[in-house]
Amino acid sequence: MLPSTPSPTQHHCANCGARLAGPWCSQCGQHSHDSGRRLRDLLHDAWHSFTHLDGRFGSTLQLLFWQPGALTREYFANRRARQVPPFRLYLVCSLVFFALTSAEKWYADHHAVPAPGPVVFDVKKDGADPCEFDLGTGKVPVWVKTACDNVVKDQGKTLGNTFLGNAPKMMFLFLPLLAALMQLAYWRPRRWYVEHVVFSLHTHALLFTGFSLFMLLGLAATAWSALELPTTIAKVALFLWLAVYPYRAMRVYYGQTRARTFVKFMGLGIVYFTLLAVVTLLTIVVSAISA
């Protein structure tokens, strides 16, 4: 039976046996405290792991939000211990954003006010099948007809849920493509491809954080009508900041002139949103097929 009280202070790591010179083992990184025997201890460990993203998450977000490009610059200056690693930061920020998006969609689906008149398309009543169409070259493939029928059947709810499930994967796969565009834009002086990957991770983490704040401000205004005006002002300010943020980050990290940075910012923006639209459309198609 496990002891109900913690063991005495350890002088050696219980995990690897290395001698301890402090609360953390220098060999394997395990803390010297005993494993929790009570639910309170387990919850404490869970809370510590979440908020401690080594205690660095708050300071990392603060630097990311208020000083565009500085977090990437710090990372490649080998001052990494004080910040959350780029991939982890991106994953946490994107997961929060997509979780809020799913929650908002769920709320809208379950609290929507029914529209007057028929909502579901009735083939018999309307006299036509909305999925009987062609592209001028004859009937469309069977899989297109099947996907269309599925979308019409539940008014696109399953498609929306499937798309939300695929969107995080789509964005994650989109990042290397953006980094390749950055590599072309900043060909001279030559930089490592990984620099553009980290820059893209940091920039998208910031954008996901900003969009999450947008949703939270909207929820606050919905819950308390008195907050409608201040939240509207905050959303306008946040939108303007998000609009100029990538330019500021490019200017700070890559260190080129304002004119050259602006030209690259506009060019990359056009290509970025064009490719994003194409990838989003492909994701919708894949989601419709698999819905």
- Helix and strand content put the structural class at mainly alpha
* Rg (CA only): 25 Å
| Count of individual beta strands | 0
Give the overall form. globular
What is the oligomeric state here? single chain
Average pLDDT works out at 80
Q: How does the major sheet shape up?
A: none
- For the terminal residues, how far apart are their CA atoms? 50 Å
Unreliable segments of 5+ consecutive residues: 1-8, 117-124
The number of helices is 10
* Proportion of strand residues: under 5%
| Helix and strand element order | HHHHHHHHHH
Q: Percent helix among the residues?
A: 55-70%
Give a description of the structure:
With 291 residues, the chain is an all-alpha fold. It has a domain at 85-110 and 123-290. The protein has ten helices and no strands.
Detail the topology: elements first, then pairings.
Blueprint: H1 39-52, H2 57-66, H3 70-76, H4 86-111, H5 123-126, H6 142-153, H7 157-185, H8 193-223, H9 228-254, H10 258-290
